[in-house]
Every structure is written in C-alpha cells, then in structure tokens.
Amino acid sequence: MTWPTNPSNRTQSVHYGARKLGENIFNEDAVCYAFYKNYVAPDSRVFFKFLHNMSFKDPKGWDYWCTPEVDIIEIKKDKTIIAYELKGARKYKENSTDKNWPGFYDGLGQALAYIDLPKIVENSKFRVLGGAFDFVYLVHARPEAKFEEYEQKIFSLLPIGFIIVLPDGGVVKVHDAKPNPLRDEETKHHFLDNLHTLEKHSTNSKIFRKICQKGEDYFSKHEN
Asked: Where are the domains of the chain?
C-alpha cells in the first residue's frame, strides 16, 4: 500500500470515547504496523514487545528485565535510543460494534516506567543504575490528529512525548519528548553492546511477523 504523508494539523485535540468503527478494529498491532512503516527511520534497528532476554540454553550471567513490556525500541543510526508505549482501539463490549479509543491517561504510567528501563539483573539482583533510553513516547490511536490544551499542559510537566497514529496509517507527533532524566550512560552502552541478545524481538522475529500479518489484515479491510 502507499503510506500517507504526516498530517499538518499538530495543535488541536478532542475527547475520544466509544464510537462505531465497524468490525475492523485499529488495535495495538495495527497501530504498531503503521507506526513502524510510516514513522520509524528505515535505517534504525527496531525491537518489538520486549520483556526480557533470559535464555536457559545460553546463560549470560546477567539479563535485561522490563516491567512493563516495552512495545517498540528504536535504535537510530546515531545510537539514540527511543522507547514507545503504544495504545490502540479496543472493543467496547463483546459482540458490539462500538470501540473505545485510548483515553488520555491510557499507557501514561507505563510510559513513565520506561524511563528507568531496562533493568540489568545479575545474581538475582537489580543493578541500581538508570535507564538506557534517551527518549520515551506515548503513542495513541486516534480518529483525528488533535491534542487539547489540557493535554499539552500535563505533558509539558513530563519527560514523555506524545504521538498520534490515525486509522489511515498517518502519524503525527504532537509533543516532543524531553531527554530522559534517569538515563544512565553505563546502562545505555551495555544495552547497545548487547543488542544481539534481543534478536527474538527484531524485524526477523515471529513477533514482528505476527504484527505485520495483523496490520496488513487491518489495512486491506480499511482500504476497502
């Protein structure tokens, strides 16, 4: 499919509740697919749905642990690391055509937890350092690229940025993230030196193939 250019309206917003969207739901996997295709830099390394890199077959003496699970980790060519927490639309009720768009606070606590991730576990203990991510964004599916004044005020107090993904695949960044105040240089270098241990979450993984399958299914129906 041909991916749309980013919409230019970056300043308005609205409250999104239950709304009839038909049977084709713009869920988190569809959001992830659109976001990867239309926003993430093509020369970045990307990992999806990362919780840990534990391996009983190949013990390392240490492991990464993320709670909550990090939806997308992007490592740019200049080694900047960005983490994204994604929220898609959900069914309002079973057997209903009504869908809920993410509420304003959906995923905010999870995104804030990202600033101190990943944890490095050695000898069953967490290293008391900081996080590896330079920037963190909360990414919401919304029917329109709008961002209200009260939302801007709250996000101005936080290090978290905000991005909207539209049902047609368009992506609009409405609020820039600030540098992660808990980022630790040692943790970042450790993470960059061990990206090969995240291969089960890469673009060559079963996880990514499943995301693509669901995303392609959504957009094939959306175009029709």
From this structure: 18-223
Closest CA to 114 of 187, 174, 53, 24: 187
Q: Which residues contact 211 (CB under 8 A, 6 or more apart)?
A: 29, 32, 33, 36, 48
Q: What is the pTM of this model?
A: 0.86
CA atoms within 13 A on the CB side of 173: 12
CB-CB contact of 148 with 13 (8 Å): yes
| pLDDT tens string 106-116 | 999 999 999 99
Q: In a 10 Å sphere around its CB, with 0-12 CB exposed, 13-18 middle and 19+ buried, how is residue 123 labelled?
A: exposed
- Give every CB contact of residue 49 below 8 A, 6+ residues apart in sequence: 69, 70, 71, 201, 207
Give the three-class secondary structure for 7: coil
Question: How many residues in total does the chain contain?
Answer: 224
CA atoms within 13 A of residue 144's CA, in its CB half-sphere? 12
